Amino acid sequence: MNDFNEETLEVAVIGLGSMGMGVARSLLRSGITTRGFDLNPEALDEFAKAGGDVASDLADTVRTCRVVILMLVNAEQCDSVLFGEGGMAEAIPQGSVVLLGSTTSASYAKALDRKLQAHGLKMIDAPVSGGAVKASVGELSIMASGEPAAFDICGPVFEAIAAKIYPVGDEVGAGETVKMINQLLAGVHIASAAEAMALGMKAGLDPDMVFEIISNSAGSSWMFQNRVPHILQGDYSPKSMVDIFVKDLGIVLDAGKEMKFPLPIAASAHQQFLSASAAGYGKEDDAAVIKVYPGIELPKKQ
Amino acid sequence: MNDFNEETLEVAVIGLGSMGMGVARSLLRSGITTRGFDLNPEALDEFAKAGGDVASDLADTVRTCRVVILMLVNAEQCDSVLFGEGGMAEAIPQGSVVLLGSTTSASYAKALDRKLQAHGLKMIDAPVSGGAVKASVGELSIMASGEPAAFDICGPVFEAIAAKIYPVGDEVGAGETVKMINQLLAGVHIASAAEAMALGMKAGLDPDMVFEIISNSAGSSWMFQNRVPHILQGDYSPKSMVDIFVKDLGIVLDAGKEMKFPLPIAASAHQQFLSASAAGYGKEDDAAVIKVYPGIELPKKQ
């Protein structure tokens, strides 16, 4: 049964959260036969309505797929869908490619590559950047590493889901390492945007004015411009959650420990996200890290 | 003698470093009679060659000036030129405006305003952003606060030196407070850019590649794009020095202490600039903060 159709590319997306759903929709829009799996029945409904194929279990989802994209929250989930009870590693056709779209550590990516090789599978670590909106319009940035033969197989997939592919090396793990560098900065920039806006409010400045001036000054960052509006609107509905940066800065700091390398600023930002999560804001938008700064009155939801 | 010409606006620039010289040149280009003062004779020469008027001492520099711009490194220097031995506070014509272009604390700006009022002088705190290049072409961003009558007097000056004026309030101190928020972010972004690039090098990634990818990703910041090229070129000739951020993040943290407000990320970045200064890099470009990350080989000067 482990067989794929040589004529038509079939792709599976495992994990239909906001990022996975966007990727799946982009594939469908490109005319690629796309199968999907998620534990959430509502996500499966949405996917089916968009024209996706829903199978009864993980193995049936991937049985004819040349490319299997993992869009899961973390390494544990990836291990579980591949090698756990009812896992799909055995069902994926020999020679197919597992595309690791999740942000994990580079060392996990390398270990996963070895396990997949033992199953006759190729792997590309391809963490994505851009958020749910870019995912839904097929304009993600992807930092990908792996062997050239695997890249060849994934060509049409990348074309469907990404505006920009950065091929960062032939060796699995490099993609995750670059993503980690990005997440170090992204996390520090969100936490320091919150710290700066909080200080401005404490000092009695109008936060809208501060936002406008800093956006046009040397203190600006991509994250400052993207996240501070959530604070100004008092809108902490999760575009990306506090707990994602608890995880991603955790990956950064674990890598630092592994390499014996000091990362004091990343560590300090991580503590702020941990504080926010401990205070009960883990599932809110990551801009809610500003709520750990005490004694200020934040803008209310309009 | 304390008198100004009602017909023609005369302006003094005190401090002809890279920022002050740029401001002075922009004033001269606009046809404004500009006097200058600096302790460095080479700076005075350059200023005179550009068409500026050089007087024999501070008092003679300002005696006919309607606007006196302070472009000095810190509050101590401002106090010294105004109220120290041979200081100029007495010599500035009544009703003239002192424009505080330096980055100081808001509480210093407020105290200075009170002292200048006692001398019959107005004040605007007008810290600038944009760096030496923008200063020299008259395109600074200025965050200015003070009474409207003072703004009216300074109109032609702002027009000559700035691309954008942000009037942040009628009360002296607000300009410095906004600048402080900007400097918190600018300092954290430089230090975290260094930390991220250092981690990438430690992990064996090509730093040019990392720079290109992050510049186009959510981890980017104004400072990342501006300062990382110095690291890639191994060029630490000071565009802006490490010790400037030792000072500016120091101002941020002092303000936090005054307001009893925690700023853990700014504090962590400040420690990195202090480490760099302690290691002997205080007068190098602020991108030299990367030199405190041990065990990596930085790109050499080409």
TrEMBL record, chains A, B:
Residues 173-293 form the 3-hydroxyisobutyrate dehydrogenase-like NAD-binding domain. GO terms for molecular function: oxidoreductase activity. The keyword NADP applies. Keywords: Carbohydrate metabolism, NAD, NADP, Oxidoreductase. Its EC number is 1.1.1.411. Pfam families: NAD_binding_11, NAD_binding_2. It comes from the Bacteria. InterPro entries: 6-PGluconate_DH-like_C_sf (IPR008927), 6PGD_dom2 (IPR013328), 6PGDH_NADP-bd (IPR006115), HIBADH-like_NADP-bd (IPR029154), HIBADH-related (IPR015815), LtnD (IPR050006), NAD(P)-bd_dom_sf (IPR036291). Residues 11-169 form the 6-phosphogluconate dehydrogenase NADP-binding domain. It catalyses: L-threonate + NAD(+) = 2-dehydro-L-erythronate + NADH + H(+). PANTHER family: 3-HYDROXYISOBUTYRATE DEHYDROGENASE-LIKE 1, MITOCHONDRIAL-RELATED, L-THREONATE DEHYDROGENASE. Belongs to the HIBADH-related family. L-threonate dehydrogenase subfamily. This is L-threonate dehydrogenase. It comes from Marinobacterium aestuariivivens. The lineage of its organism: Bacteria, Pseudomonadati, Pseudomonadota, Gammaproteobacteria, Oceanospirillales.
